[in-house]
Batch of 4 targets.
Target 1
Amino acid sequence: MVYEERNIWASLIVSVIGTIVYVVIVLQQADGGPLTDVDWVPIMLWVIGAGIVGAIVLSIVWGILAGMFDPDGVGKSDQRDRDIAHMSTRVGQAFLIIAGLGVLILCAFEADWFWIANTMYFGFALSSIVGGIASVIAYRRGLV
C-alpha cells in the first residue's frame, strides 16, 4: 500500500468513526427530546478536533509501521496518486456543494442553528467519506 493510500484509509477510518460517535452522543444527549435542545457545539468541536488529531496520529503510526517493512517505499507518490487525489476531490466536493445549498435553504427558512450546522457538518463528513471511498476504489480497480 502506497503512502497516499495509507493516508486516505486513515482519514476514512477516522471520518466514519467520528461521524458515528457524534451521532450517538447527540442522540444520547437528546434522550428522546428534541434534538435542537442538545448543546451540540462542544460535541461537534470535540469530535472534529479529535478526528483531525486521530487521522494524523493513525497516519504517522501506520507510516512508521510501513517504514519498518518497506523503507524505500515510504512517502513516495507518483502521477497516479495525483490523478486519484484529483478525482476524489471532485467527487467529495459535490457533497460540499449539496450541503452548502442545503444550508442556504435552511437559512432562508430561518431554521434552528442545530439543523444548519449539522447540515454543513454532515456535508463535510460525507465529502470525506465518499471521496475516501472513491480513492480506495480507484487504488484497487484503477481509474477509468
Note: The longest helix spans residues 40-69.
Target 2
Amino acid sequence: MSTRHSRSASVALTALLVAGLTLGCEPSAEESDATPEPQVTGLSEPKLPEDVDEARSTRAAKEFRSWVAAEGTARQQEAAARVDRVLGDWEGESAEAYLSTDLGGDGSVRDPMGAAKALVTAFDGWKDAPNGMAGTVSVHDVNGTALVVGTF
C-alpha cells in the first residue's frame, strides 16, 4: 500500500514541477531586450490576394520601407528591404494587410521566420486599424505562402 502512495505522490510532484517550470519561467518585460513577439491570430494561412493595383501596392511598400528606415529597429530595417508589395485594405473596414516579400527566394536571409515576425511588429508600429479595431497583417514568402499572421 505504501508503494501505491509513493507512486501517486511521485506523479503529483512531477506534475507540479512541470507546471511550475512551464508557467513560471517567462521573463518580465524589463528583463527582456528582445523585440516582443507579434500577436498571432487564429487564422492558419491567409491567401495572398491577387494584386489588382500594382502601382498602389508598390507605392505602399515604398512608404512602409521608408517609415521603417526612419522609425524601425535594425532588424525591422533589414527585413523591410525584403518587402516588394503591400496589399489589402488596412485603412478600411476590413483592416487586412498582406506583405509580399522575397523571403525564401535566394536563401540570403538566415532566419525568414524572424524577419517575418519583425515585419509584423513594424507594420503594427506603422499603421493602426481604423475605429480601434484589430487589423490582421500577414507576411508571405516569395511563393505566396503565409509565414506569420499577426495583428495591428
Note: Helices lie at 2-23, 54-71, 74-80, 112-126.
Target 3
Amino acid sequence: MTQINSSDSRRSPASPASPPALRSVARSASRHNASPLRRLLAGAAASVAALAATAAAPPVAYAQEPAPHGDRLVVTVRGAGGGADGTYEVRCRPSGGSHPDPAGACAAVEENTRWGQDAFAPVPRDAVCTMQYGGPATARITGTWAGRPVDATYDRANGCAIARWDRLVPLLPEQRSVGRP
C-alpha cells in the first residue's frame, strides 16, 4: 500500500474552494496513519458533503429567471358583459400592456405556474365536474409564458371550467355564476 507524504500535492482531494467541512474530511482521510477503513469512511463522508453542497444551490434549469424578452399574453374575452369584453395585451417582467390590471394579471398566472406543469392546461378529460353553469363568458389566451407558447381557451360550462377560469382572475374578468345572487 502506498503512503501519502504530507508534502505530496495529491494529499487532499478537496480544493481550497471546497466547503470547509469537505476540506476537513479530506485532510483526515489523507493522513498517512489512517487505516483503509477510515480513509473509505472519510471518502464517503466527503462525497456526501459535496453532494449536499451542490443540492443546496438551485439548478440552472429550475431558476426563476425571467424569460429573455419577458412574458406576453393576448387575452380575448367574449360574453362576459359589464364592459369586460375585448382584447387585452399583458406584458410581465416588467408589467404593462392594455389590460386593466397588468400587475394583477401577471401575479395570477405566476401564482398558478408550477415547474413541469402547464399553467394553461385544459381540464383533464377524466375529471369529475359539477354540472353547474357559470354563464356564457369565453376567453382565449395566446402568446408566450415562461418561454413557451400559449394557446388556451376558457369557458364556464361546468364546475371544473369555472374553477379553471377563477384561478386566473384578474387575468380573466371576475364572473358570477348564473343563479348566484
Note: The longest strand covers residues 71-78.
Target 4
Amino acid sequence: MKRTSTPRRHRTAIAAALACAAALGTVATATGAQAAAPQHTAKADTPYVMNHVGEENADKGKAERKPESLVLSEFTSAGDLHWKQWDNKKAVATGDVTGMWCLETCQDKPLKATVTLSDPKTVHGKKVYSSFTVKLAGGNGSYDSEDLKGKQPLATI
C-alpha cells in the first residue's frame, strides 16, 4: 500500500473544501435570488377582513387579508378558503362552510360554498369589508338560516 504524500492530501482536502464552498455558494445565490424576487402583496388601500378565528381573536378580531379560515357570524364559519379575488370592492373565495344551522349534517362533512366579502368601510383607521354573502354549491336546500339569505353584516371590530 502506497502512502499518500502530505502535499497531495492537502491538495485533495483543499479541492474538497472548494467544491463544498462552490455548492454552498450556489445555494446561497439561489436563496438570495428568491428573497429578492418581488412578493405579491396587497396594495395598502386593499381592505382587510376582521377575522375572529381562535380564542385570542374571538372578542376583537384580527385584521387579515386572504385568511384560510374565517368566522362570518356567530352561527357560520368558513374554512379551506381559496381566494379568487381580493380587491378594493370585494373578495371572493370558494371553500367549506359550517354553521349551527347544519351541525347534524355538516359537522363532519362541511358544505362547499362561495363566500363573497363586500362593502368596505373604514373602522378605527383600517379599511375592512363590512358584509358577506354565502352561496352553497348545491343551493340552500333545507337549510333555513339568516346567513344564507343574501347580504349579511360582517363583524368589523
Note: The radius of gyration is 26 Å.
